[in-house]
Amino acid sequence: MKDSEARSGTALTQAPQFPRRLNTGPAWFWFLLPAGVITLVFFFAPVIITLVISATNMSTITGLTRWEWVGFGNYERLLSLPQTVRRFWITLRYVLFTLVFFNVGMALLIALITTHIPRQLGTFFRAVWLLPRITPVVAYVFMWQIMAAAPPHGVITSNILEPLGGPTGNLLPANAFLFIVLVNGFIGASFGMIIFTSAIESIRQDIMVASLVDGASKLQRIRYIILPQIRWPLLFVTTYQTLSLLTSYEQILVLTGGRWGTEVWALWAFNVGLDDYYGFFQYGLGAAIAAVLVIMGILFALLYMRYFRFNELLHEPRIDVL
Amino acid sequence: MKMELVNLSKKFGDVYAVKNVSLAAEDGELVALLGPSGCGKTTTLLSIAGVYRPTEGEILFNGLCVNKMQPKERDIGMVFQSYALYPHMNAYQNIVFSLVLRKRPKDEMERAAKRVSEMLGIGHLLKRKAAELSGGQQQRVALARALIKEPKLLLFDEPLSNLDARLRLSMREEIKRLQVQLGITSIYVTHDQVEAMTMADRVAVMHDGELLAYVPPEELHERPRTEFIATFIGSPSMNLADVTVDNTGGSAHAVLKNGVSVKIPKERLPRMPQRGNAVRLGIRPEDVSVVAERSADVQARVTFVESLGRENLVVCDVGGQRIQCLTGPGQKPPLDSTVGLKLDMSRAHYFDPESQVSLLWEN
Ligand SMILES: Nc1ncnc2c1ncn2[C@@H]1O[C@H](COP(=O)(O)OP(=O)(O)O)[C@@H](O)[C@H]1O
Ligand SMILES: [Mg+2]
Question: Per DSSP, what are the bridge partners of residue B318?
Fold first, then answer.
């Protein structure tokens, strides 16, 4: 240990002589400027504008000129609205189920299976899972609507349920939640699938072999080697997909329009702020609803960082003396 | 444990990576698999480990065919060139991993880890992750991980190739000492002939997937069975010259292309190839010496001199024939000078120029 102390001692006395020069002058400012401007304009500005609007009573009635500041008025209203709690739970359930069963769960399962079978077969299966993502949303959702429709058009009803003597109406109203999870899940799984597959395939071959020689079965190898090795991609996909699911509503809008208990938070913000049937758009309240999403997103991200023990991914410097 | 390969072949696609290899390692023996990069050493080792299925042939452990056994059933320890420590585990977790998989009790793990880490002098490093260890330390951890299972067979895949020269030397000694002390049958893959010659009880020389020789190290050097082995073993490598053997009149001579002839001692007279009397003469640089011109066998011009530290490498030209020789520290003839060379023909080798098989030693 004396050795390393000695070394850090030298480093301390030498430091001011050489690296300091690089930090002087405003050069760093100019280097950061382009990226900084882009970040400000496209990432921070929308958030700040949303927060600002959420503090006003702006709507189609007030227009852009006659609005007034209302402080936390919109948020207080949100808290008092009877739908709020319900929508909160719908959103949480929707995000959780889609994430666990599809965007991360199914993605991981496909990645694991397709990397443990012959290569070409694996590539084929993964290609199949990409189809929902490359189909236009409207066509894709329309397909699901046909799937759920009542006979004679409904795929499930006329081919499976009717012959068996089951219920024959449109399946969507009674099972709307299940359908929005499926519709989003089948699209969402391919993202994680691609990332997990490439992460698994880039695990060093020697440690894969070493684990077999150490006596691991294929399942044990997944648990003790593969999963820990793809912890970063897992964290990334989980975080990224949570945020996407929290803010995405297009498929739900097209499939149910938010009816039958499927109005998730983002769709609610859209409906209140930009899509009222009578043309009464409440920009202020809509912005407040959206702002809650931003906060939820940040909370989730922090939670994941903690759970995946971000700190442990960094390690101490090595000391090259035996 | 005795390990045997019987006509082992392994194909990748249409290409043989290992072709018809047969050898047996006796209980407690250290066998080196020696050969240039890409000759199929790793493939052979991974077949023994059970990671690859042999395409043809059998692998026997104590006479029992293990072809169908999973790696985990084979009771082997393996050490890799890249160390292959699990990056997300610390040294201790790496070492006891095989026991964790077998769900052994914690105190047993701790005892076993203590035993092997003391044996390897890494007791103070157990809490570190692989990235926080130097190459030598990582290799010790990897060795501990292989030994904790008390394997019946140890497999080494170029374990020292990534270490610096000095560390390589001390680790070489240490691995050999441990192997002898524990008496574990070992297969040691290397492309470094010095490593193979110093550590192994027997050396298996591989080339293009085939086994060329399987003999003790001394024999490999002293009695090479083929021209490839003769030139592959020894550094700098053996001089080769096409000669004709003139066996008329009482004594035999090797006649070089330029007419210079050197006497062949009776006890070192080669068999003649099937056709003619043209053979390839091989003589190691250490068996050629620079001498005064009157006692020389041939006259040569010095084209290159290189100091190797303890000795000098002198490259000469004998009428168009290149001959390398090793000389003592004081002996450093100037470039372009003419010197006399004495060839120690009692240590010469002869090969059939067509089949490249030795004309001295039985195959
Ligand atoms: N998994 C593999 N798939 C296809 N070819 C391989 C594979 N492993 C090795 N080979 C080929 O087999 C030959 C022998 O390789 P290897 O056993 O790694 O040689 P060595 O360890 O002696 O350097 C090489 O030509 C290599 O390209
Ligand atoms: Mg190799």
Answer: B321
CB contact under 8 A, A319 and B132: yes
If you take atom 8 of ligand 1, which residue's CA is the nearest one?
Answer: B43
Contact A207 B149 (CB under 8 A): no
Residue A232 CA to residue A203 CA, distance in Å, equals 12
Ligand 1 nearest-atom number relative to CA B43? 17
Q: What residues does B304 pair with on adjacent strands?
A: B315
Distance of alpha carbon B115 from alpha carbon B118, whole angstroms: 5
Distances from the Cα of B24 to the Cαs of A138, B4, B16, B224, B227, in angstroms?
68, 4, 21, 20, 24
Contacts of B22 (CB under 8 A, 6+ apart): B4, B5, B6, B7, B8, B57, B211
Question: Which secondary structure element, helix H or strand E, spans residue B297, and what is its range?
Answer: none
The domain spans of chain A are 44-80+276-310, 88-263
The Cα–Cα gap between B183 and B176 comes to 10
The mean pLDDT values, 10 residues at a time, for chain B of 363 residues are 96 94 96 94 96 95 94 93 94 96 94 94 92 92 94 95 90 93 96 93 94 92 90 90 86 86 89 86 94 86 90 90 89 90 93 91 75
CA distance B261 to A234: 76
Count Cβ atoms below 10 Å from residue B357 Cβ, excluding itself.
16
Of B49, B46, B39, residue with least CA distance to B18: B39
Q: What ipTM does the predicted assembly reach?
A: 0.83
The yes/no answer on whether domain A88-263 falls in CATH 1.10.3720.10 is: yes
Comparing CA positions, the residue from B294, B288, B313 lying closest to residue B303 is B313
Given an 8 Å threshold on Cβ–Cβ distance, is B149 in contact with A206? no
Specify the ligand 1 atom closest to the Cα of B158: 21
